Amino acid sequence: MQTKFLALFALASITSAWASPLEAGTICKGQVTLSEEYIGKDHNVKVEHVTCPDATSLEPSSFQPPTSLEARQVVVNVCGAPCATNCFLPAGGGPDPNDCHVIADALKFANENTGPTFTIGPDSSFIMTYLSCKTFFLNQDVNFLTYCRNDWASLVDFVGSNCQATQNAHGGNCVAADQAWFVQVQHT
Span of the secretion signal (predicted)? Predict the structure, then answer.
């Protein structure tokens, strides 16, 4: 799996809105927190389930509202789906890779104790924070998405370690080819 991420890794300076970290504290306009808990062996990683009711504020997206109730009830499994990694340029202000590794370990712990996947609704996100590291999985699709916790853990470790000052970066993201979802890793 690591090879897949290495093959997709590209240090890129992208000028679109999704190439730079979003505003501190929120990931979308009109963000609403649905729940908050702490996970991991030591219960030290904060997890927030948020929704983004103003879907037009999400980037990157070709969001089209569902035309029927059935469209909202489809669940698409994106475990193992490739994504393109982008580092946020220039250097400075990235998360501590050790803090990101704590989040990755919490995801692996949840994988073993809760289950290997999670499902998230349209225009929703799970945000995980530990000290200097913040990561989120954002669903921009009109369908529910199922994703693997171990895939997210691998991305957090990879981006957290490979999008740092030594690579002239400060965090990054991995965006699905169809832009239906992405994982971002940044400073809190």
Answer: 1-19
Q: What local confidence, expressed as pLDDT, does residue 22 receive?
A: 44
- Residue 178 DSSP label: T
- 127 within a domain of the structure (yes/no): yes
The predicted structure's pLDDT at residue 24: 53
What pLDDT score does 85 carry?
96
Task: Spell out the residues 6+ positions from residue 108 whose beta carbon is closer than 8 angstroms to its own.
Answer: 149, 150, 153
CA-based nearest residue to 23, from 134, 149, 126 = 134
Residue whose structure tokens are 């609403």: 32
Distance CA 164, CA 87 (A): 8
Q: In the sheet that 124-130 helps form, which strands lie side by side, from edge to edge?
A: 9-10, 83-87, 172-176, 181-187, 133-139, 124-130, 45-51, 32-39
- Answer for the pair 28, 58: CB distance below 8 angstroms, yes or no: yes
Residue recorded with tokens 């998405």: 145
Would you give the DSSP letter of residue 21?
Answer: P
Looking at the domain assignment, is residue 99 inside a domain? yes
End-to-end CA distance of the chain: 27
Our count of domains for the chain comes to 1
Mean pLDDT of successive 10-residue stretches along the chain, which has 188 residues: 32 31 66 94 96 59 45 84 96 93 98 96 95 96 96 98 92 96 96
- What is the extent of the structural domain holding 48? 2-18+38-56+78-187
